[in-house]
Design brief:
This protein is an alpha+beta fold. The protein contains twelve helices and 20 strands.
């Protein structure tokens, strides 16, 4: 679970801004089940957060900042590719380092991972283990102006000789040490701390963009009957017109696979499939996927998903997913998040959750999570314009966040818990009236309307 995230000098963020999921004392006694205890700490962490703001205010930039941190934590970079950071461009300090600091909970343990970065190098990097009020350095990395990487590994001494040797070498100056470890060492040599952190970024933190294509749902639907039933029932209960989902899995020959994909892609896939039980999934559009599995030898499958509609009693018509409404397609992209959170846990960050979806469906989506995905290690963070979510019967004050862009173009973050409001206040009405900020300024449009009336 994310406890807090701080970002500075990145896209629309100029000075440091902090997004905190720590439950506020001001909201104590309200929706207590929405927060869970932080181990070794008197504070609690929220399971949900909803971010509001005008177009261009910076909601999606917070999402992109988290995506950037995940990418830097896991992925290697080319020798001359720089760091890929995007500094705030409307100030005088575009050359100063950007800073990211993410505090999160994994397997009952708190960690802080972060770095300072310029266009060319990781200036500083740190991983800290938090036990109660004590912070223990796992490793600290510094890169000098001449690109010499120095790494102190006080907390990695039990990881073994390979880790020590890699720390001595340091790795590329434009790449995090965490990504270097992941690329250079087998998982068995990570040690407990890095195993926790890398696995959290790989498996627990999922970011869903508003323009995400169909996820590789076919493999999941074909192999998990419980998920297939869950997805079908959720679509049917959501008044999408879909009665159930039909899944077809047809085995192909290697020649048939090669006729369906570019030769270079087939070569890459087959080179990557080296161990039994490992597979690769390629989406080819319209709810179709190609799956390669190894069980002694390679097997190739064409998986298709169709939405079945009951035209009249006993008469079913099946449609390709691309023939479904944008709202149904968007919902199908998000259903795996609910099922995963209900059965396994994790953190899902969803940008523009309301894209193409009816307001009532967006509300029911969050209600389902809050009611049926209870417990630790389960968290949803969303950005939205859907004002119907601004309901204290649904959310706590500290779960509602606002994103506002100031006159200098910089994004500011703040919570509804920063305001003194009555528990029975109609939050939606006051938000739309501008009481809490984070709404578009429409003065120029009003003047245009007046001028047009006078013509």
């Amino acid at each position: 679970m994310i406890i807090s995230f701080s970002v500075e000098n990145f896209r629309s963020f100029a000075g440091e801004e902090t997004f905190s999921l720590v439950a506020s004392n001001r909201a104590a006694g309200h929706h207590e089940g929405h927060a869970v205890s932080i181990p070794g700490n008197e504070e609690r962490v929220l399971r949900t957060a909803v971010l509001y703001g005008a177009n261009g205010a910076g909601k999606s930039n917070l999402f992109k900042a988290l995506s950037f941190v995940r990418n830097m934590a896991l992925n290697t970079r080319g020798k001359n590719s720089g760091t890929g950071r995007e500094a705030f461009r409307f100030g005088d300090d575009t050359d100063k380092p950007s800073s990211f600091d993410l505090c999160f909970l994994v397997n009952g343990q708190l960690y802080r991972f972060g770095f300072k970065i310029d266009d060319h190098r990781i200036v500083e990097e740190w991983l800290i283990k938090i036990d109660g009020k004590r912070e223990k350095e796992v490793y600290e990395r510094i890169t000098s102006p001449d690109d010499r990487v120095t790494i102190e590994t006080k907390g990695l001494k039990k990881a073994g000789g390979k880790m020590s040797a890699l720390a001595t070498v340091g790795g590329p100056p434009n790449q995090t040490f965490l990504a270097t470890v992941r690329a250079m060492l087998p998982a068995s040599d990570y040690g407990t701390e890095l195993t926790n952190v890398i696995s959290w970024f790989e498996d627990s933190l999922t970011l869903i963009r508003p323009d995400s294509p169909f996820l590789p749902l076919g493999q999941l639907l074909a192999h998990d009957i419980n998920f297939l039933q869950f997805a079908s029932e959720f679509l049917k209960a959501s008044s999408t017109g879909v009665d159930h989902l039909d899944i077809s899995k047809k085995e192909l020959t290697e020649d048939e696979l090669r006729r369906m994909l570019p030769e270079s892609l087939v070569t890459d896939i087959l080179n990557d499939i080296k161990e039994d039980g490992v597979g690769a999934v390629v989406s080819i559009g319209e709810g179709s996927e190609l799956l390669v599995e190894r069980t002694g030898e390679n097997h190739y499958f064409h998986i298709t998903i169709q939405a079945a509609h009951e035209h009249k009693a006993g008469h079913i018509i099946s449609l390709k997913l691309t023939d479904e409404s944008d709202g149904t397609q968007r919902l199908l992209q998000l259903i795996p998040a609910l099922h995963h959170l209900k059965t396994n846990g994790g953190v899902f960050v969803i940008d523009e959750i309301d894209r193409s979806m009816h307001p009532m469906l967006t509300i029911k989506f969050l209600e389902f999570f809050l009611k049926f995905c209870e417990g630790e290690q389960r968290q949803i963070i969303v950005t939205t314009h859907e004002s119907n979510l601004l309901d204290l019967a649904l959310l706590r004050r500290d779960e509602i966040w606002f994103v506002e862009k100031e006159k200098d173009g910089a994004t500011k973050l703040y919570s509804l818990a920063d305001f003194k409001v009555r528990k029975d206040l109609e939050i939606r009405k006051h938000y739309l009236q501008g009481r809490f900020g984070a709404v578009p300024f429409l003065g120029n449009i009003d003047r245009l309307l007046e001028e047009d009336t006078c013509v």
